[in-house]
Amino acid sequence: MQAMSIASSEPKDLLRELKGLSEFTKSQFSSLVSTFPLSDEQVQQLGENKYSVCNFIDYWGKMNPQPKGRHLVKVLEKDLGRKDIGEVLRKHFPSGTAGPKGDDEARLLNMPFKVRQKLIAVLSVRDSNAADPHDWRAVADRIGLDGTTIMLFGQTELPMERVFKAWDVRDDATIGNLYTILVELGMPVYADYL
To answer: Which of 44, 116, 140, 171 is the most exposed, fewest CB within 10 Å of its CB?
Structure first.
């Protein structure tokens, strides 16, 4: 078995952890094949152990050399109920590639309190040395707050809290959208808090 190219950590460590998980059921495998279409030839390449989690993830990694794990993790955790696989993949995928742990469509208001407070704390710190700030101002700008509002929020102690409150009332205020914004702004580590 060759090393997986999508893992941020040592691929052999990922594959070792995956080997310890129970195999896919026939139904789970059929669902995976319908979601991530594999030809009969590709299914044959998986061999006799086609229901092996390790074999499938390894094969999927070879077919998707760029980190595209968000959809895979979502299907495994939410559609197939295999949170065990999702947890292992989250540990090994690069930051910002596995998607939020919760429901993408969940409202920001439903974000766990500790996660919200952690994001408010790390994003409220002003990074004045950066040419492209990785803080609340970038998020505020991305969600479309005007310059005057951003300046006003900048005068408060925890400006990211104000950004969340302003955004919470909008239809696009979802965990999935915040995750995507944080990744696109170069803050994948913060996105992984979700």
So the answer is: 171
Q: What is the pLDDT of residues 85-108, one digit of tens each?
A: 999 998 888 888 889 988 889 999
pLDDT of residue 119: 95
Find all residues with CB under 8 Å of 82, minimum gap 6, and list them.
24, 28, 53, 76
Q: How far is residue 55's CA from residue 165's CA, in Å, rounded to a whole number?
A: 45
Q: Which amino acid, one-letter code, is at 142?
A: R
- CA separation for the pair 48, 40 (Å, rounded): 13
- Torsion over CA of 146, 148, 153 and 155, rounded to 10 degrees? 160
**Which tokens belong to 166?**
């302003």
Give 9-76 as a DSSP string: S-HHHHHHHHHTSPPPPHHHHHHHHHHS---HHHHHHHGGGTT-HHHHHHHHHHH--S--HHHHHHII
pLDDT digits (tens, 9 = 90+) for 18-49: 888 898 888 898 888 888 777 778 777 776 77
Q: Nearest 5°: CA angle at 47, between 42 and 48?
A: 140
CA–CA separation, 173 and 116 (whole Å)? 13
